[in-house]
Amino acid sequence: MDSTPSPVLVERDASVTILTLNRPERLNAVNPDLYRELKAALDEIEADQDVRAVVLTGAGRGFCVGADLKSHSEGSMPAEQRRECIGLAQTVNAGLQHSRVPVVAAVNGHAPSARGWNSLCRPILFSSLRTRSSASLKSPWVPSSVEA
User: Which terminal residue of the chain has fewer beta carbons within 10 Å of its beta carbon, N or C?
Assistant: First the structure.
């Protein structure tokens, strides 16, 4: 039996599904396995009419640092697998953007890629006061006095 933890945890609380990016040792950097699991979870959510909202968050001390450059590097990932990863990323991004239910990004900790997640999870993005982002989290829906 495989003891590797799932890269995406799925939790249901009444009509809300909570998706937790679960690679805290890599600050939840995305890789092909995470994209596959996230796609499967989004497919289930779209098929389940009882789901009314999705919360996307990250395990550990950071939300998501973006791509796992170590696993995406030229030497460790064959071209075919890189193409698959790009296709999965596009599919997941489209699934988040066009979801039939609101997707809320609950950004915590280190989140240099938060601006990208903000565009995917609009119009709702929640950020901890301790969130550190290298990108502006400006949003037309959030007063400037609240923005990070």
Answer: N
End-to-end CA distance of the chain: 43
Rounded CA gap, 57 and 108, in Å?
7
Beta strand pairing call for 16-21 and 8-13: antiparallel
d(CA 125, CA 105): 5
Query: Which helix or strand (DSSP H or E) is residue 35 part of?
Result: helix 32-47
Structure tokens at 68: 């796992």
pTM strictly above 0.90: no
Chain centroid to CA 66: 9
Structure tokens at 29: 């950097």
Would you give per-residue pLDDT tens digits along the chain (148 residues)? Answer: 567 899 999 999 999 999 999 999 999 988 889 999 999 999 999 999 999 999 999 999 888 888 888 776 656 778 888 888 889 989 998 898 888 998 888 887 766 655 555 555 544 555 554 555 444 444 443 334 334 3
Q: What's the CATH code, domain 8-127?
A: 3.90.226.10
